[in-house]
């Protein structure tokens, strides 16, 4: 098989910058096969070995406003480069019997070498693998920019612009920035001249001060300037210089400008059900107010309306939580909710109406499945940090078994692996005497331990998982587990969380008289009021946020969600439970964040499972609700939307132009829709009265010149809670000061040192640094009476001036209120 043959025009010098970025044509040869093509960014040409050239000469020239070239009034003649992917052109092509296929694509704007790889599959010839072939994209000269990903408003950062010369002669380039109201320049000059000789590069810098928040564009331009008596001489010139006349290069880069302090989000959620309201119409006023100490310029408001409690989930499948998800349990937040979305679409016959959502959910599930296998131990069990834990976790293994079994309806799950996982649960975690499941391995979620030391809570959780995985209710394993649960219920369960799980497990097994006993107890301790119904725990940490910004404790969301599932089971015999279930749904909706999730992993998974089950039960083909939203203050704004069966999973979103404000929400029609108002703003680093952690931070400058370019950050965390001996899994988020990043190589060496010396500080993993996100470190737990100390090495990548302090956030992953903030700065000079 003649495979493959590629052809493209040879690289040549072009008189215009955009001529080197033309269509690439690739001819593919084979015989009746499918061919995959992939182009991978190899390196920037600035990293490619240059041909011999004159000695390097590069200098900034005198600023002369009278010789700056003006852009013609008809518009810019340059091509603005904006598209810089690392991987390009995943392409599948079918090659017919003729054996040749040609595809054409526009090359991205990167000045680089692209390397193509490909393989071909054929029923007749098998598989063929191509030899890598490179494609070089370049132009006579181009500019490259170096700038930070994010800065704080009014900080000053250097924008470095480098000009690369690929000719053999020297020439002068004027480098300038397009003026913008988004930023100012410290020295007021938007242009500089640069002499760059053949095969070399030269740089200039502009000191940028961003003035507005958000992603601001910065457009940098470079143009060849012919020799002139007004400019100093710039080395040796030649005939090829004539090709540079009217040649420009321009790039558009963005910088994220953030505000000081910490971002806070407040969401107001409620159901609009006009046909249940007095007079057949709904009317509510919603006050949108910011705290008095809001950082100026950070407040924003928006309104979202959707006809289904799953609407926000479908819109935000990839970002249900605003938290790190770096362990085996947290990874499931990107997997499990998709199951409930697909089940709802299939069971309500709406799959054909939302093909993109259906396919996207399956894609997220496939990725989540592949990632979760990293946390699988050789014996088929799962643990939060995989093989590093040394032993599988009964709790996490049950969670994964349930999720994978439910997902097997939609994606390929290895049934043999599921069987091995099921066998591990049954053979290694079941107590022969009591029938209860034994808590093996790490339980990073303390509520799963409940108020029982004999594993009743975990047994209920595992029983639910086995039922979902297809375990027969009549099997010996289920018989013994039910006996464990029945005995605990008969003896009396004081812990509400455990009572909810035990009752739901017995309801799933369909042992009616027994689970009804638990249901009656739950009804007796329910909290009612304001048209809602929910369940609480006595030892929940207090919320000390601004009024209206506090959400329920994650364990309370979990137990209330389990009770909603119990009500749905009970409604099959008594329809009144379905009517009462809406009161629970009202309360759960009030606790949701703007992305459709809740606070943590388990409450989001169980909460969405319960809401999806409810949405499926109450689905109707007769929905038609009109919603009018208007402001009552300042520049009046009016928004209108109509929700029907055709669009009830689509989320309508409106930005409120003037905020603070008061909204007047009116609804009429038949059915219910979900309303959500979201306020986002920044507050100074939060000072919380109930300090659950003592956080001490010290920055040590270890550079000889004491310029803060490399700083050791000593962090010590002590757990102070008098009620609990230890936390759940805890996270330390270190937000970077602008221009700095964590040296992960040093961190790895530090971790190796701790292991080699037998020091265990409970650090299980860290997330590799991502621009714009805090650096997250995961700890097994923090214990009262013990201090945990560790060191991070911060390196300064870009020297930003007038930097603002950043903060360290220490929190219990499963207790949203157990949190402490501490500000820090790596350099006392600033």
From TrEMBL:
Q: Which branch of life, at top level?
A: Eukaryota
Pfam families, sorted: A2M (PF00207), A2M_recep (PF07677), TED_complement (PF07678)
Tell me which SMART domains the record gives. Answer: A2M, A2M_recep, Thiol-ester_cl
PANTHER family recorded: MACROGLOBULIN / COMPLEMENT (PTHR11412), PREGNANCY ZONE PROTEIN-LIKE PROTEIN (PTHR11412:SF171)
Q: Which UniProt keywords apply?
A: Disulfide bond, Glycoprotein, Membrane, Protease inhibitor, Serine protease inhibitor, Signal, Transmembrane, Transmembrane helix
Limits of the Alpha-2-macroglobulin domain: 87-177
- Name its species: Stichopus japonicus
Q: Which SUPFAM superfamilies match?
A: Alpha-macroglobulin receptor domain, E set domains, Terpenoid cyclases/Protein prenyltransferases
InterPro entries attached here?
A-macroglobulin_rcpt-bd (IPR009048), A-macroglobulin_rcpt-bd_sf (IPR036595), A2M/Complement_sys (IPR050473), A2M_TED (IPR041813), Alpha-macroglob_thiol-ester_cl (IPR047565), Alpha-macroglobulin_TED (IPR011626), Ig-like_fold (IPR013783), Ig_E-set (IPR014756)
Lineage of the organism? Eukaryota, Metazoa, Echinodermata, Eleutherozoa, Echinozoa
* Stated name of the protein: Putative alpha-2-macroglobulin
Q: Which family does it belong to?
A: Belongs to the protease inhibitor I39 (alpha-2-macroglobulin) family.
Q: Name one GO cellular component term.
A: extracellular space
Molecular function as annotated in GO? serine-type endopeptidase inhibitor activity
Domain (Alpha-macroglobulin receptor-binding) spans: 727-824
Q: Does the keyword Membrane apply?
A: yes
Which residue windows are transmembrane per the record?
23-42
